[in-house]
Amino acid sequence: MLTAYQILTTISDTVWDPFMMVLLIGTGIFLTFRLRGIQARKLVYTLRLMLERKEEGRGDISPFRALMTTLSGTIGTGNIAGVATAISLGGPGAIFWMWLTAIVGMATKFAECTLSLHFRKKLPDGTMIGGPFYYLERGLKNPRLGLVLGMAFAAAGAFSSIGGDNMAQANSVALALKDTFHIPGIVTGLLLAQAVGIVVIGGIARLGYVAGNLVPFMAVLYISAALVVLVLNFKEVPGAFLLIIESALTGQAAVGGFAGATVAHAMRFGIARGIFSNEAGLGSAPMAHATAKTERSVRQGLIAMLGPFIDTIVVCTMTSLVIVSTGAWETGKTSTRLSIHAFNSELGYAGDLVITLGMVLFAFTTILTWSFYGKQCISYFVGKVSKDVRFYRFSIVVYYSIFLVGIIVGAGVVDLPNADACLEAIWLFADINNALMALPNLIGLLLLNKIVVGMVKDYFKA
Protein backbone atom coordinates (compact mmCIF):
# COMPACT_ATOMS: atom_id res chain seq x y z
CA MET A 1 0.00 0.00 0.00
CA LEU A 2 1.28 3.46 -0.88
CA THR A 3 2.16 5.75 2.03
CA ALA A 4 0.82 9.31 2.32
CA TYR A 5 4.30 10.60 1.46
CA GLN A 6 4.45 8.50 -1.72
CA ILE A 7 1.00 9.67 -2.76
CA LEU A 8 1.93 13.33 -2.22
CA THR A 9 5.18 12.82 -4.15
CA THR A 10 3.33 11.30 -7.09
CA ILE A 11 0.76 14.10 -7.17
CA SER A 12 3.47 16.77 -6.87
CA ASP A 13 5.50 15.26 -9.71
CA THR A 14 2.35 15.20 -11.83
CA VAL A 15 1.18 18.79 -11.26
CA TRP A 16 4.72 20.19 -11.44
CA ASP A 17 5.69 18.30 -14.60
CA PRO A 18 7.47 20.23 -17.40
CA PHE A 19 4.10 21.31 -18.82
CA MET A 20 3.35 23.45 -15.77
CA MET A 21 6.74 25.17 -15.86
CA VAL A 22 6.41 25.73 -19.61
CA LEU A 23 2.94 27.21 -19.01
CA LEU A 24 4.26 29.56 -16.31
CA ILE A 25 7.25 30.75 -18.34
CA GLY A 26 5.31 30.71 -21.60
CA THR A 27 2.60 32.93 -20.15
CA GLY A 28 5.26 35.39 -19.00
CA ILE A 29 6.89 35.45 -22.43
CA PHE A 30 3.50 35.84 -24.16
CA LEU A 31 2.51 38.76 -21.90
CA THR A 32 5.94 40.35 -22.36
CA PHE A 33 5.36 40.45 -26.12
CA ARG A 34 1.72 41.57 -25.80
CA LEU A 35 2.72 44.41 -23.46
CA ARG A 36 5.78 45.27 -25.60
CA GLY A 37 8.33 44.62 -22.87
CA ILE A 38 6.64 46.83 -20.30
CA GLN A 39 8.99 45.61 -17.55
CA ALA A 40 11.94 47.20 -19.40
CA ARG A 41 10.18 50.18 -21.02
CA LYS A 42 8.54 51.41 -17.83
CA LEU A 43 11.02 50.31 -15.16
CA VAL A 44 12.35 53.82 -14.40
CA TYR A 45 8.81 55.24 -14.45
CA THR A 46 7.70 52.50 -12.05
CA LEU A 47 10.55 53.20 -9.64
CA ARG A 48 9.42 56.83 -9.52
CA LEU A 49 5.85 55.72 -8.76
CA MET A 50 7.04 53.65 -5.82
CA LEU A 51 9.14 56.48 -4.40
CA GLU A 52 6.20 58.90 -4.64
CA ARG A 53 4.13 56.74 -2.22
CA LYS A 54 0.98 58.42 -3.54
CA GLU A 55 -2.42 57.44 -2.11
CA GLU A 56 -5.71 58.18 -3.83
CA GLY A 57 -9.23 56.76 -3.87
CA ARG A 58 -10.74 53.78 -2.06
CA GLY A 59 -8.69 51.02 -0.50
CA ASP A 60 -7.26 49.81 2.80
CA ILE A 61 -3.49 50.38 2.64
CA SER A 62 -1.09 52.54 0.63
CA PRO A 63 0.28 51.27 -2.72
CA PHE A 64 3.75 51.08 -1.14
CA ARG A 65 2.54 48.97 1.77
CA ALA A 66 0.65 46.73 -0.63
CA LEU A 67 3.97 46.05 -2.38
CA MET A 68 5.72 45.46 0.95
CA THR A 69 2.95 43.06 1.96
CA THR A 70 3.45 40.97 -1.18
CA LEU A 71 7.24 41.08 -0.73
CA SER A 72 6.82 39.85 2.83
CA GLY A 73 5.12 36.84 1.29
CA THR A 74 7.75 36.19 -1.37
CA ILE A 75 11.01 37.20 0.33
CA GLY A 76 11.40 34.16 2.55
CA THR A 77 13.11 30.81 2.77
CA GLY A 78 13.27 30.65 -1.03
CA ASN A 79 15.80 33.49 -1.04
CA ILE A 80 18.13 31.60 1.32
CA ALA A 81 17.43 27.87 1.18
CA GLY A 82 15.81 27.92 -2.28
CA VAL A 83 18.75 29.59 -4.00
CA ALA A 84 21.21 27.25 -2.30
CA THR A 85 19.17 24.22 -3.35
CA ALA A 86 19.00 25.41 -6.95
CA ILE A 87 22.79 25.78 -7.09
CA SER A 88 23.51 22.46 -5.35
CA LEU A 89 21.25 20.53 -7.74
CA GLY A 90 21.56 22.47 -10.98
CA GLY A 91 24.94 24.16 -10.65
CA PRO A 92 25.64 27.93 -10.73
CA GLY A 93 23.88 28.15 -14.11
CA ALA A 94 20.55 27.69 -12.34
CA ILE A 95 20.80 31.31 -11.18
CA PHE A 96 20.81 32.55 -14.78
CA TRP A 97 17.46 30.81 -15.34
CA MET A 98 16.15 32.28 -12.10
CA TRP A 99 16.95 35.71 -13.52
CA LEU A 100 15.08 35.01 -16.75
CA THR A 101 12.14 33.65 -14.76
CA ALA A 102 12.00 36.91 -12.81
CA ILE A 103 12.25 39.10 -15.93
CA VAL A 104 9.31 37.48 -17.74
CA GLY A 105 7.55 37.07 -14.39
CA MET A 106 7.43 40.85 -14.04
CA ALA A 107 5.00 40.98 -17.00
CA THR A 108 2.91 38.21 -15.45
CA LYS A 109 2.81 39.97 -12.10
CA PHE A 110 1.82 43.24 -13.77
CA ALA A 111 -1.08 41.62 -15.64
CA GLU A 112 -2.50 39.66 -12.70
CA CYS A 113 -2.33 42.59 -10.28
CA THR A 114 -3.81 45.05 -12.79
CA LEU A 115 -6.76 42.71 -13.36
CA SER A 116 -7.14 42.23 -9.61
CA LEU A 117 -7.59 45.98 -9.04
CA HIS A 118 -9.92 46.29 -12.02
CA PHE A 119 -12.36 43.61 -10.78
CA ARG A 120 -12.10 44.06 -7.00
CA LYS A 121 -15.09 44.38 -4.63
CA LYS A 122 -15.86 45.41 -1.05
CA LEU A 123 -16.34 42.85 1.74
CA PRO A 124 -19.06 42.98 4.44
CA ASP A 125 -16.48 44.35 6.91
CA GLY A 126 -15.77 47.29 4.58
CA THR A 127 -12.35 46.13 3.36
CA MET A 128 -11.49 45.48 -0.28
CA ILE A 129 -11.12 42.07 -1.88
CA GLY A 130 -9.75 41.13 -5.26
CA GLY A 131 -7.73 38.40 -6.89
CA PRO A 132 -7.88 35.69 -9.53
CA PHE A 133 -11.25 34.43 -8.25
CA TYR A 134 -12.92 37.73 -9.13
CA TYR A 135 -11.25 38.46 -12.45
CA LEU A 136 -11.94 34.88 -13.50
CA GLU A 137 -15.60 35.07 -12.46
CA ARG A 138 -16.30 38.61 -13.67
CA GLY A 139 -13.87 38.91 -16.56
CA LEU A 140 -14.34 35.76 -18.63
CA LYS A 141 -17.08 35.76 -21.27
CA ASN A 142 -18.35 32.44 -19.91
CA PRO A 143 -19.44 33.27 -16.31
CA ARG A 144 -19.98 29.62 -15.41
CA LEU A 145 -16.44 28.70 -16.44
CA GLY A 146 -15.15 31.76 -14.59
CA LEU A 147 -16.99 30.75 -11.41
CA VAL A 148 -15.61 27.19 -11.56
CA LEU A 149 -12.05 28.43 -12.10
CA GLY A 150 -12.45 31.06 -9.38
CA MET A 151 -13.72 28.52 -6.87
CA ALA A 152 -10.87 26.13 -7.79
CA PHE A 153 -8.31 28.89 -7.19
CA ALA A 154 -9.86 29.91 -3.87
CA ALA A 155 -9.97 26.31 -2.63
CA ALA A 156 -6.31 25.72 -3.51
CA GLY A 157 -5.31 29.05 -1.93
CA ALA A 158 -7.12 28.30 1.33
CA PHE A 159 -5.64 24.80 1.62
CA SER A 160 -2.18 26.10 0.74
CA SER A 161 -2.29 28.72 3.50
CA ILE A 162 -3.66 26.38 6.17
CA GLY A 163 -1.88 23.12 5.40
CA GLY A 164 1.31 24.18 3.72
CA ASP A 165 2.73 27.67 3.79
CA ASN A 166 2.11 28.44 7.47
CA MET A 167 3.37 25.05 8.71
CA ALA A 168 6.41 24.94 6.41
CA GLN A 169 7.52 28.48 7.27
CA ALA A 170 6.95 27.91 11.00
CA ASN A 171 9.08 24.79 10.73
CA SER A 172 11.88 26.81 9.09
CA VAL A 173 11.85 29.29 11.99
CA ALA A 174 11.80 26.52 14.60
CA LEU A 175 14.62 24.63 12.91
CA ALA A 176 16.83 27.74 12.67
CA LEU A 177 16.27 28.66 16.33
CA LYS A 178 16.78 25.09 17.53
CA ASP A 179 20.07 24.68 15.61
CA THR A 180 21.46 28.05 16.71
CA PHE A 181 19.97 28.66 20.17
CA HIS A 182 18.63 25.16 21.11
CA ILE A 183 15.06 26.43 21.56
CA PRO A 184 12.46 23.61 21.46
CA GLY A 185 10.18 23.70 18.44
CA ILE A 186 6.96 23.74 20.45
CA VAL A 187 8.14 26.87 22.31
CA THR A 188 8.87 28.60 19.02
CA GLY A 189 5.48 27.55 17.70
CA LEU A 190 3.57 28.97 20.65
CA LEU A 191 5.45 32.29 20.57
CA LEU A 192 5.16 32.55 16.79
CA ALA A 193 1.42 31.81 16.83
CA GLN A 194 0.93 34.51 19.48
CA ALA A 195 2.89 37.08 17.46
CA VAL A 196 1.01 36.26 14.26
CA GLY A 197 -2.32 36.38 16.11
CA ILE A 198 -1.61 39.88 17.41
CA VAL A 199 -0.95 41.12 13.87
CA VAL A 200 -3.84 39.40 12.06
CA ILE A 201 -6.38 40.66 14.61
CA GLY A 202 -5.65 44.14 13.29
CA GLY A 203 -6.54 43.13 9.74
CA ILE A 204 -4.87 44.24 6.52
CA ALA A 205 -4.12 47.72 7.93
CA ARG A 206 -1.93 46.29 10.72
CA LEU A 207 -0.40 43.71 8.37
CA GLY A 208 0.47 46.49 5.92
CA TYR A 209 2.02 48.54 8.73
CA VAL A 210 4.16 45.64 9.97
CA ALA A 211 5.20 44.65 6.45
CA GLY A 212 5.90 48.26 5.46
CA ASN A 213 8.38 48.60 8.32
CA LEU A 214 9.79 45.08 8.72
CA VAL A 215 10.35 44.14 5.06
CA PRO A 216 12.64 47.10 4.19
CA PHE A 217 14.57 46.55 7.44
CA MET A 218 15.15 42.83 6.93
CA ALA A 219 15.96 43.24 3.23
CA VAL A 220 18.54 45.96 3.93
CA LEU A 221 20.04 43.92 6.79
CA TYR A 222 20.41 40.78 4.69
CA ILE A 223 21.70 42.59 1.59
CA SER A 224 24.19 44.55 3.73
CA ALA A 225 25.58 41.32 5.19
CA ALA A 226 25.88 39.86 1.69
CA LEU A 227 27.64 42.99 0.45
CA VAL A 228 30.16 42.73 3.29
CA VAL A 229 30.98 39.18 2.17
CA LEU A 230 31.28 40.27 -1.46
CA VAL A 231 33.51 43.24 -0.60
CA LEU A 232 35.81 41.00 1.47
CA ASN A 233 35.88 38.58 -1.45
CA PHE A 234 35.67 41.18 -4.26
CA LYS A 235 38.32 39.60 -6.49
CA GLU A 236 36.14 36.53 -7.01
CA VAL A 237 32.89 38.38 -7.80
CA PRO A 238 33.50 38.98 -11.56
CA GLY A 239 34.46 35.32 -11.94
CA ALA A 240 31.25 34.32 -10.13
CA PHE A 241 29.15 36.23 -12.66
CA LEU A 242 31.01 34.61 -15.57
CA LEU A 243 30.64 31.15 -14.01
CA ILE A 244 26.88 31.60 -13.64
CA ILE A 245 26.49 32.55 -17.31
CA GLU A 246 28.94 29.90 -18.57
CA SER A 247 27.30 27.16 -16.50
CA ALA A 248 23.87 28.14 -17.83
CA LEU A 249 25.11 27.43 -21.36
CA THR A 250 27.34 24.41 -20.72
CA GLY A 251 26.08 22.84 -17.47
CA GLN A 252 28.13 22.32 -14.33
CA ALA A 253 27.04 20.70 -11.05
CA ALA A 254 28.07 21.33 -7.50
CA VAL A 255 29.69 18.54 -5.51
CA GLY A 256 26.94 16.19 -4.41
CA GLY A 257 24.61 17.35 -7.18
CA PHE A 258 23.96 15.65 -10.48
CA ALA A 259 27.23 14.38 -11.89
CA GLY A 260 27.97 16.35 -15.03
CA ALA A 261 24.87 18.51 -14.73
CA THR A 262 23.43 19.49 -18.08
CA VAL A 263 21.88 22.72 -19.25
CA ALA A 264 18.50 21.01 -18.76
CA HIS A 265 19.26 20.51 -15.06
CA ALA A 266 20.21 24.15 -14.65
CA MET A 267 17.02 25.23 -16.43
CA ARG A 268 14.81 22.86 -14.43
CA PHE A 269 16.00 23.85 -10.97
CA GLY A 270 16.54 27.51 -11.83
CA ILE A 271 13.02 27.93 -13.18
CA ALA A 272 11.42 25.89 -10.38
CA ARG A 273 13.19 27.82 -7.60
CA GLY A 274 12.62 31.13 -9.38
CA ILE A 275 8.87 30.53 -9.51
CA PHE A 276 8.88 29.40 -5.87
CA SER A 277 10.75 32.55 -4.86
CA ASN A 278 8.82 35.33 -6.64
CA GLU A 279 5.43 33.56 -7.09
CA ALA A 280 4.75 35.28 -10.43
CA GLY A 281 1.76 33.52 -11.96
CA LEU A 282 0.55 31.81 -8.78
CA GLY A 283 -2.08 34.50 -8.20
CA SER A 284 -1.14 35.23 -4.59
CA ALA A 285 0.18 38.80 -4.87
CA PRO A 286 -2.96 40.17 -6.60
CA MET A 287 -4.94 39.56 -3.41
CA ALA A 288 -2.76 42.02 -1.48
CA HIS A 289 -2.43 44.61 -4.24
CA ALA A 290 -6.24 44.68 -4.59
CA THR A 291 -6.41 46.45 -1.20
CA ALA A 292 -4.25 49.41 -2.32
CA LYS A 293 -5.61 52.94 -2.08
CA THR A 294 -5.70 53.81 -5.75
CA GLU A 295 -8.21 54.33 -8.55
CA ARG A 296 -5.71 53.47 -11.29
CA SER A 297 -5.40 49.72 -11.76
CA VAL A 298 -2.46 50.00 -14.16
CA ARG A 299 -0.60 52.24 -11.75
CA GLN A 300 -0.71 49.61 -9.03
CA GLY A 301 0.08 46.89 -11.56
CA LEU A 302 3.29 48.71 -12.43
CA ILE A 303 4.26 48.94 -8.76
CA ALA A 304 3.42 45.24 -8.35
CA MET A 305 5.78 44.19 -11.13
CA LEU A 306 8.70 45.40 -9.02
CA GLY A 307 8.09 42.37 -6.78
CA PRO A 308 9.97 39.78 -8.89
CA PHE A 309 12.71 42.35 -9.57
CA ILE A 310 13.38 43.02 -5.88
CA ASP A 311 12.85 39.44 -4.77
CA THR A 312 14.87 37.59 -7.39
CA ILE A 313 17.08 40.04 -9.29
CA VAL A 314 18.22 41.76 -6.08
CA VAL A 315 17.87 39.50 -3.02
CA CYS A 316 18.38 36.09 -4.67
CA THR A 317 21.34 37.45 -6.62
CA MET A 318 23.02 38.51 -3.38
CA THR A 319 22.66 34.99 -1.96
CA SER A 320 23.91 33.33 -5.16
CA LEU A 321 26.96 35.56 -5.49
CA VAL A 322 27.95 34.86 -1.88
CA ILE A 323 27.64 31.11 -2.45
CA VAL A 324 29.46 31.06 -5.78
CA SER A 325 32.18 33.65 -5.11
CA THR A 326 33.24 32.00 -1.83
CA GLY A 327 33.44 28.57 -3.47
CA ALA A 328 30.91 27.19 -0.97
CA TRP A 329 28.90 25.67 -3.83
CA GLU A 330 31.63 23.03 -4.25
CA THR A 331 31.42 21.72 -0.67
CA GLY A 332 28.56 19.30 -1.27
CA LYS A 333 26.30 21.10 1.22
CA THR A 334 22.77 22.11 0.30
CA SER A 335 19.78 24.20 1.41
CA THR A 336 20.22 26.48 4.46
CA ARG A 337 23.46 24.76 5.50
CA LEU A 338 25.08 25.81 2.21
CA SER A 339 24.08 29.45 2.73
CA ILE A 340 25.35 29.40 6.32
CA HIS A 341 28.67 27.91 5.22
CA ALA A 342 29.07 30.60 2.54
CA PHE A 343 28.44 33.48 4.96
CA ASN A 344 30.56 31.88 7.69
CA SER A 345 33.55 31.63 5.34
CA GLU A 346 33.95 35.42 5.56
CA LEU A 347 31.93 36.48 8.62
CA GLY A 348 32.65 33.65 11.03
CA TYR A 349 29.93 32.92 13.59
CA ALA A 350 28.18 36.11 12.49
CA GLY A 351 27.14 34.17 9.40
CA ASP A 352 25.04 31.85 11.58
CA LEU A 353 23.37 34.84 13.19
CA VAL A 354 22.66 36.54 9.85
CA ILE A 355 21.06 33.45 8.32
CA THR A 356 19.14 32.59 11.50
CA LEU A 357 17.78 36.12 11.89
CA GLY A 358 17.03 36.25 8.16
CA MET A 359 15.16 32.94 8.27
CA VAL A 360 13.14 34.04 11.31
CA LEU A 361 12.14 37.44 9.90
CA PHE A 362 11.57 36.21 6.35
CA ALA A 363 9.47 33.24 7.45
CA PHE A 364 7.50 35.30 10.00
CA THR A 365 6.42 37.89 7.43
CA THR A 366 5.64 35.14 4.91
CA ILE A 367 3.29 33.53 7.45
CA LEU A 368 1.58 36.88 8.04
CA THR A 369 0.99 37.45 4.35
CA TRP A 370 -0.29 33.93 3.70
CA SER A 371 -2.73 34.29 6.58
CA PHE A 372 -4.21 37.20 4.64
CA TYR A 373 -4.22 35.31 1.34
CA GLY A 374 -6.06 32.42 2.95
CA LYS A 375 -8.55 34.79 4.58
CA GLN A 376 -9.35 36.37 1.20
CA CYS A 377 -9.92 32.95 -0.35
CA ILE A 378 -12.23 31.95 2.51
CA SER A 379 -14.06 35.29 2.17
CA TYR A 380 -14.74 34.55 -1.50
CA PHE A 381 -16.12 31.13 -0.65
CA VAL A 382 -18.29 32.40 2.20
CA GLY A 383 -19.66 35.16 -0.03
CA LYS A 384 -20.97 32.51 -2.43
CA VAL A 385 -22.68 30.61 0.39
CA SER A 386 -24.21 33.38 2.50
CA LYS A 387 -24.50 37.17 2.67
CA ASP A 388 -24.93 37.11 6.46
CA VAL A 389 -22.26 39.31 8.09
CA ARG A 390 -22.31 37.24 11.30
CA PHE A 391 -21.70 34.03 9.37
CA TYR A 392 -18.85 35.74 7.52
CA ARG A 393 -17.19 36.87 10.76
CA PHE A 394 -17.61 33.43 12.33
CA SER A 395 -15.99 31.79 9.29
CA ILE A 396 -12.99 34.09 9.48
CA VAL A 397 -12.53 33.38 13.21
CA VAL A 398 -12.61 29.62 12.51
CA TYR A 399 -10.10 30.04 9.68
CA TYR A 400 -7.64 32.05 11.79
CA SER A 401 -7.94 29.55 14.65
CA ILE A 402 -7.03 26.66 12.36
CA PHE A 403 -4.24 28.74 10.84
CA LEU A 404 -2.65 29.48 14.24
CA VAL A 405 -2.88 25.82 15.30
CA GLY A 406 -1.10 24.94 12.05
CA ILE A 407 1.79 27.22 13.04
CA ILE A 408 2.20 25.41 16.36
CA VAL A 409 2.05 22.00 14.68
CA GLY A 410 4.52 23.00 11.96
CA ALA A 411 7.04 24.31 14.48
CA GLY A 412 6.54 21.39 16.86
CA VAL A 413 7.44 18.90 14.13
CA VAL A 414 11.16 19.64 14.62
CA ASP A 415 10.97 17.91 18.02
CA LEU A 416 9.77 14.63 16.49
CA PRO A 417 12.09 11.71 15.60
CA ASN A 418 10.83 11.71 11.99
CA ALA A 419 10.93 15.49 11.62
CA ASP A 420 12.52 15.50 8.14
CA ALA A 421 9.88 13.18 6.65
CA CYS A 422 7.05 15.25 8.15
CA LEU A 423 8.53 18.47 6.80
CA GLU A 424 8.94 17.03 3.31
CA ALA A 425 5.28 15.97 3.34
CA ILE A 426 4.23 19.50 4.37
CA TRP A 427 6.26 21.08 1.56
CA LEU A 428 4.85 18.61 -0.97
CA PHE A 429 1.31 19.52 0.09
CA ALA A 430 2.13 23.24 -0.29
CA ASP A 431 3.72 22.67 -3.72
CA ILE A 432 0.64 20.78 -4.93
CA ASN A 433 -1.73 23.54 -3.87
CA ASN A 434 0.52 26.21 -5.38
CA ALA A 435 0.32 24.42 -8.73
CA LEU A 436 -3.46 24.16 -8.38
CA MET A 437 -3.56 27.92 -7.74
CA ALA A 438 -1.40 28.67 -10.76
CA LEU A 439 -3.35 26.65 -13.31
CA PRO A 440 -6.71 28.53 -13.24
CA ASN A 441 -4.88 31.83 -12.79
CA LEU A 442 -2.71 31.34 -15.89
CA ILE A 443 -5.74 30.31 -17.94
CA GLY A 444 -7.40 33.55 -16.89
CA LEU A 445 -4.37 35.68 -17.75
CA LEU A 446 -4.13 34.20 -21.24
CA LEU A 447 -7.86 34.69 -21.91
CA LEU A 448 -7.99 38.21 -20.45
CA ASN A 449 -4.81 39.62 -21.97
CA LYS A 450 -6.75 41.92 -24.32
CA ILE A 451 -8.31 43.71 -21.35
CA VAL A 452 -4.87 44.35 -19.85
CA VAL A 453 -3.43 45.61 -23.15
CA GLY A 454 -6.39 47.97 -23.56
CA MET A 455 -6.03 49.32 -20.02
CA VAL A 456 -2.31 50.00 -20.57
CA LYS A 457 -3.05 51.98 -23.75
CA ASP A 458 -5.72 54.03 -21.99
CA TYR A 459 -3.50 54.71 -18.96
CA PHE A 460 -0.57 56.10 -20.92
CA LYS A 461 -2.84 58.14 -23.18
CA ALA A 462 -4.32 59.97 -20.19
Account of the protein in words:
- This protein is mostly helical.
- The chain has one domain: Amino acid/polyamine transporter I, CATH 1.20.1740.
- It has 21 helices and two strands.
- A two-stranded antiparallel ribbon has the order 1-2.
- A hairpin with a 5-residue loop joins strand 1 and strand 2.
- About 1% of the residues have low confidence.
Outline the secondary-structure elements.
Layout (H helix, E strand, L loop, with lengths): L3 H12 L2 H17 L3 H4 L1 H10 L10 H12 L2 H14 L2 H26 L2 E2 L5 E2 L2 H8 L3 H39 L3 H17 L1 H30 L4 H14 L12 H16 L6 H5 L7 H8 L1 H20 L9 H13 L2 H36 L3 H24 L6 H29 L1 H13 L1
Antiparallel strand pairs: 1-2
Q: Count the beta strands.
A: 2
Q: Which structural class fits the helix and strand makeup?
A: mainly alpha
> Largest sheet, order of strands side by side?
1-2
CATH class designation? Mainly Alpha
CATH topology: Amino acid/polyamine transporter I
CATH architect. name: Up-down Bundle
**End-to-end gap:** 63 Å
Poorly predicted tracts of residues:
255-260
The global form is: globular
Percent helix: over 70%
Largest sheet: 2 strands, antiparallel
Mean pLDDT: 85
- Strand portion: under 5%
Radius of gyration: 21 Å
